[in-house]
Each structure stands twice: as structure tokens, then as C-alpha cells.
Amino acid sequence: MKDHTTNVVEVGPxxxxxxxxxxxxxxxxxxxxxHPRVFLGFSHGDQVKCPYCSTVYKLKDGAKASHGH
Length: 69
Description:
Strand content: 25-35%
Number of strands: 5
Number of helices: 0
Helix content: under 10%
Largest sheet: 3 strands, mixed
Number of domains: 1
Order of helices and strands: EEEEE
Radius of gyration: 12 Å
Shape: globular
Structural class: mainly beta
């Protein structure tokens, strides 16, 4: 049976781009695992999952994402 582990990356305020978004792949990922860059927002909660690699980005405790106007 294959082990389907999910990478979880904790995101702090210093990691967020404009409008409370992050992008994947993130700079810490190895080059071999790159896929097209996608911007992911936290508009529906404190975590978001990349549609390409299934990495889960979770806001650190106390971090808040700005949702723009």
C-alpha cells in the first residue's frame, strides 16, 4: 500500500503576498518538484491546498490573511 503523505507548510504574516495570498511552489521546494506557479488565497478558512502537488498551506496561530476590499 502506498503512503500518501501530505506536506503541510505553516504560513506566517511575513510569507503572505498581496491580498493575503501565497504561491506554490514555494521557494523552499526542490527544483525537481516544480509545477506552474499558482496563487492561493485564504478566503475560505485558515488553510488552502495546492491543486498541483496537494501541499497544504496553513496559517500559523494568530496569523490573519487580508482579503482586500
